[in-house]
Amino acid sequence: MLKNKIIAIGFVALFGPFVFWASQSANSQVEQKIRNVENGLIEFKPGSPAENAPAPKKMALSERMAFYKVPGVSIAVIHDHKIEWSKGYGVLKAGSSTPVTPDTFFQAASTSKLITAAIALHFVGKRKLDLDRDVNSYLKSWKIPENDLTKNKKVTLRLLLSHQAGLPTTNFDHDEKVGYPTLVQVVKGESPAKNKAAVVEFVPGSKWQYSNVGYDVIQLVLEDVLDKPFAQIAQEIVFKPLGMKSSTFAYPLKPELLAKEAMPHDDKGIAREPAMHLTALAHGGLMTTPSDLARFTIELMLAYQGKSSRILSQEMARQLLNKELDLDPKMTAGFPLGEGLGVFLRGQADQFSFLHPGGNLPGTNCWLEGWPGSGKGVVIMANGAGGEVLAIEILQAVINEYQGPIPTKISHP
To answer: What does the pLDDT look like over 221-261, one tens digit per residue?
Structure first.
């Protein structure tokens, strides 16, 4: 789940050896780029730098991982619509010696919403769903309760995807003494679920309010219309066509994959048990790798350019990446962002990018960003609460190294 704001390893003795694995042998030019990124991190400070300020100090990734108490990081960098390199750093769990590799599974957290959005737009393109139709016309196992706020304006797929449906912001918990909630119990806010119900709180379309449970309503729409579990839908529509063999919405992972799962860590770097939701999946339930998310990012960029249609037609890709509204920078930690259909947008014209960060409690983080105009992109995943800010520092190091159409500086007000 995305935290309320985008920003809010340890030393060898604590986290074990700092190691990395390369997914492929790289030529000397790419190796130099990798070294530049690894040694080019700059402390993230919101706000514009002071006039005549000295050049900021560049630091090593290992140093920043130690500072933020993040045991493990995995990165995939896209250049010219190809994964140019992917590497893992650190360990799966503090105190262990099992290294993070490009095959390590991380929680994608709210970055999962971009996969959910692509699935929804796929079926809009197939005319099985409509962006502007009352979603209650699709729902069979439950309906969004009608109230005075929905008399004249109904909840639609477009409004759900763009967080304008009027549904609440809520995290998720359940009563362990009673059992585990079904998806219907989650959207109802019914025991054993302990989250807010998916009940409209303001007139749909009147304002933006980030809503995890809104995406679980989308999950229920898809399951009711297609009569299939969401994890199966994602496998058939996205993962299998794109060769994303290390991606799943099914959790816990299969026994043979457990040794590849990165454990979450709190802000002190202490390992915690994963808290993945087992039934409400669409808002933050994806397990994957940066390389798999990079494959998805490449496909979206190609579809936007009309060069591929394995998931989305060009029309649907452009719908997904069309700005529905501008967001108040106060809501996005100072980042000037727009909202598309399940994705954030920044920049203008050919230099625009689409992105989706994510952070799951008790401590995992993800950042995906792609620039369709240049075919460049990056995916960063970390297994610590401090990875939220660390990912921004890594992102800036990648942007500084891969210049050209990519903006050379993250903009802050």
So the answer is: 999 999 999 999 999 999 999 999 999 999 999 999 999 99
In angstroms, the Cα distances linking 324 to 215, 339, 342, 344, 350 are: 17, 6, 10, 10, 18
Helix or strand or coil: residue 185? Answer: helix
Is 0.85 topped by the overall pTM? Answer: yes
**CA dihedral for 39, 47, 9, 248, sign (positive or negative):** negative
The H or E element containing residue 30 is helix 28-38
Q: Which residues contact 202 (CB under 8 A, 6 or more apart)?
A: 149, 166, 209
Residue 385's alpha-carbon distances to 75, 119, 264, 358, in angstroms, are: 17, 29, 8, 11
Alpha helix positions (H), 92-205 = 112-125, 157-161, 183-188
* Ordered domains of the chain (ranges, CATH): 12-44+59-112+230-401 (3.40.710.10), 119-226 (no CATH)
Measuring CA to CA, how many Å separate 16 from each of 12, 61, 217, 260, 383?
5, 16, 42, 17, 15
> What does the alpha-carbon distance between residue 379 and residue 297 come to, in Å, rounded to a whole number?
9
Spatial CB neighbours of 14, under 8 Å, sequence gap ≥ 6:
94, 95, 269
Counting every residue written for the chain, the total comes to 413
Chain centroid to CA 156: how far? 22
Measured distance CA(190)–CA(283) in Å, rounded = 18
List Cα–Cα distances, 310 to 101, 236, 242, 307, 370, in angstroms: 28, 11, 8, 10, 18
Average pLDDT, the chain: 91
